[in-house]
Specification:
The protein is of the alpha+beta class. It contains 22 helices and 34 strands. The strands form eight sheets. Strands 15, 19, 20, 21, 22, 23, 24, 25, 26 and 29 form a ten-stranded mixed β-sheet that branches. Strands 2-1-5-3-4 form a five-stranded mixed β-sheet. Helix 4 packs across helix 5 (190-202). The longest helix has 23 residues, at 133-155.
């Protein structure tokens, strides 16, 4: 799957699942329906305006002076060109036709650039193919335009928003239908949409870029209230932006795009859902169509196989099959963890709790409900109120906490602190509530009630580097147990930030040094830090190579200021942030989580292991099976001995035959199956079949019960992913 790095689970944040219907096919396998009898009138309206303005743009470009320019390639070599005439595609063709054929997009002086758009001056050039992550997003964005074209022709709809998916393969398009129309997107439409898309691909429709003023944009899209809203919101008066045309579609878009639609060699419509305009349930309900595309059919075949495997691993299916959790309409977005699911939950929390003990974290407990004055002071109310559950208490406004950091600030500030106490590491497994939109809820990955392995480190400026290294080591320790690989990015100062540049520079230098000393490959994500401080973004990879962001390491200079936190420094020490001599200084807060949401991590682990839990985390560790009724008492004794030793052991005293009992235990994913008969009773032993040892499944291995228990303790303590007995 290295060619694809596809992501599957929970494709939409504002999604509700429709009822599925089988696609209808006509004779010969052709789609039963295709485009409307007559194309919508707005298509001709758009094209008329586009043609008029595009001709003017061509004439303006023709008047631009042609001057010799130097194009510097990634290897440092130079190519000669003419301004306003030579394109990145020309350069690619001059190197090799195979390079030009594989070219998806260019980068000119670090900015993504259409391959057929002329250079305007001397520049540095990068040529990107589909293996590049930015190129993938461009490819899928262009494919979204093809999907949009198909949707307009099929439904006569008004397009809204059609981006590539953020962390997954593919794209979607939202659209609204005419007022009064009850037509909805259905799976039976997919074949027709694919047929229209493939027609556009075969036509090799070029992507044509046109810069337009706000006034002309409003004239072009006057028929579409969604586009009019976007233009008025995002295009200031007196300025301009761009549209792109491919075939009959003209869409408001900054681009850039692939050269033409023939770059898309394989196209598929995957699913449909409902969404809301701007993600707000008070706005229009829209239809959403998802698709995926690739440069060749082999990649599509691989991707569809991947989808099949991911579907088998869906945590929502496994959760039902293994009786781990469920949801109920009387408390939407809040999981009910059944006994076996709670076993996993508690094991994960206790795993982190033991690490806290080793690493000097102090566990604390804070209230679930606070007066909103706390959130006003922290700044969360101003930016996060819509995601908080509010309530009235004694005529005062309160809210359930969505995060722990303000409460931890109150803890730090409740008495004087000395520099000798720092760092102080508060850890909190408190219940959090976030008012996610109903359409955003998706199994355990997006919930309203959850817990985190949340911690906040209060430290001096000179301690930041060591604390970051400790957090990275903690990260590697935990993820190593699960077998996850991970990627690190240092997100630096954004355009809008709080605090002094010098403080940011020092903090970023400390993070960079910590990452270098950590020894794992990392890269910059410049300008993507939080407004209150730089951060390290951590992305893990599961068994299917899907990316998940769970952990976080963030520096925060603002909360200490908002809560006026301070510690007593050595007399007349210069304040590390202001440089002014002071007996008191302000600490830095490090926000840190490893698992992140415990609920979400359980979902990720469930899919990563495909429901085959490693022994130390398994909710069903051992099944004891007697071969006949005479052995029931001994089987119960074995089960009791295992239970007293601290293991999750069950005994099957049903009337099923032995082989049926063994098969049931295998389906339930017990790590070990202990078959006992008269011989085992006589020897006080068990005949063990191990799930992870194929050879033991046929006949099993007889082991004295005390030895078996001893080996189980060793397997559990080692937290190995594969459970096998010693020979």
């Amino acid at each position: 799957m290295s060619e694809i790095e596809a992501q599957v689970a929970n494709l939409s944040l504002k999604e509700t699942k429709p009822k599925e219907a089988k696609p209808k096919k006509a004779k010969g396998g052709e789609a039963a329906t295709s485009s409307l009898a007559e194309p919508p009138a707005f298509i001709e309206h758009r094209n008329r305006i586009f043609d008029e303005l595009f001709q003017k743009q061509k004439e303006e470009i023709a008047q631009k002076p042609r001057e010799k320019i130097a194009i510097t390639l990634a290897d440092g070599s130079e190519r000669e060109g003419l301004s306003w005439e030579t394109t990145p595609m020309d350069i690619a063709k001059s190197i090799s036709m195979s390079l030009a054929k594989a070219l998806v997009i260019a980068k000119v002086d670090g900015v993504l650039w259409d391959t057929l758009r002329p250079f305007e001056a001397s520049a540095k050039l990068e040529l990107l193919d589909f293996e590049n992550e930015e190129a993938k997003k461009v490819f899928w964005h262009s494919s979204a335009h093809v999907l949009g074209e198909a949707c307009e022709l099929h439904y006569g709809c008004h397009l809204c928003h059609g981006p590539p998916l953020k962390d997954e393969a593919g794209f979607f398009y939202d659209f609204g239908t005419e007022e009064g129309s009850d037509r909805k997107a259905l799976p039976s439409d997919f074949a027709s949409l694919e047929s229209l898309a493939n027609k556009a691909i075969k036509e090799k429709q070029p992507f044509e870029r046109l810069e337009m003023t706000k006034e002309d944009l409003l004239r072009m899209f006057e028929y579409n209230k969604y586009k009019v809203h976007m233009i008025n919101e995002h295009v200031p008066d007196g300025t301009s932006t761009t549209v792109y045309r491919c075939g009959p579609l003209i869409d408001l878009c900054r681009g850039p795009h692939v050269p033409n639609t023939s770059s898309i060699n394989s196209f598929a419509v995957l699913k449909n859902s409902a969404s809301y305009f701007l993600g707000d349930a008070s706005n229009d309900s829209l239809q959403r169509i998802y698709g995926v595309s690739f440069p060749d059919k082999k990649q599509m075949t691989q991707y569809k196989k991947f989808l099949e495997e991911a579907s088998k691993r869906d945590h929502r299916k496994i959760g039902v099959q293994q009786e781990l959790f469920f949801f109920h309409d009387l408390s939407p977005g809040s999981a009910f963890f059944l006994p076996h699911g709670t076993r996993i939950y508690n094991t994960l929390v206790n795993f982190i709790r033991a690490k806290y003990w080793q690493r000097g974290f102090e566990e604390v407990m804070t209230p679930n409900m606070f007066n909103v004055k706390l959130w006003e002071q922290s700044g969360h109310l101003q930016n996060y109120e819509e995601n908080m559950f509010g309530l009235s208490v004694d005529k005062e406004k309160f809210a359930l906490k969505p995060m722990n950091c303000p409460g931890h600030c109150l803890m730090f500030g409740q008495r004087d602190r000395s520099y000798r106490e720092l760092p102080i590491r508060f850890a909190d497994f408190g219940v959090l509530h976030r008012n996610e939109a109903s359409g955003a809820l998706s199994g355990l990955t997006r919930v309203r009630r959850f817990q985190q392995d949340d911690a906040h480190i209060f430290c001096r400026q000179d301690q930041v580097g060591e604390e970051i290294k400790g957090a990275l080591d903690f990260l590697q320790d935990v993820y190593g147990v699960f077998g996850f690989t991970f990627e690190l990015k240092l997100s630096t100062r954004p355009d809008k930030f709080l605090g002094e540049v010098s403080v940011w520079d020092r903090a970023e230098a400390q993070l960079e040094q910590a990452l270098n000393e950590f020894g794992t490959k990392w890269e910059f994500n410049r300008g993507d830090g939080a407004f209150y401080g730089p951060k390290i973004d951590i992305t893990i990879r599961d068994a299917l190579n899907r990316a998940h962001q769970c952990a976080t390491i963030q520096l925060d200079f603002q909360l200490p200021q908002r809560f006026k936190l301070q510690y007593r420094a050595p007399t007349s020490t210069n304040d590390e942030q202001t440089g002014v001599a002071s007996d008191f200084q302000q600490p830095v807060i490090i926000h840190r989580a490893i698992l992140g949401s415990v609920e979400r991590m359980i979902a990720i682990l469930m899919e990563n292991f495909a429901g085959k839990w490693p022994f130390w985390l398994s909710p069903r560790q051992i099944m004891v099976i007697p071969i006949d009724k005479d052995i029931y008492d001994y089987a119960a004794q074995v089960q009791n001995s295992l239970h007293e030793a601290g293991f999750y052991a069950d005994v099957d005293l049903s009337g099923d035959k032995r082989d049926k009992k063994i098969r049931n235990a295998e389906i339930a994913q017990y790590n070990f199956i202990c078959v006992v008969g008269a011989e085992e009773r006589e020897e006080v032993s068990v005949n063990v079949r191990c799930r992870d040892d194929v050879e033991s499944k046929a006949r099993g291995k007889t082991v004295p019960l005390p030895s078996f228990i001893s080996q189980l303790h060793s397997i559990k303590d080692s937290k190995t992913m594969v459970s096998r007995l010693l020979n």
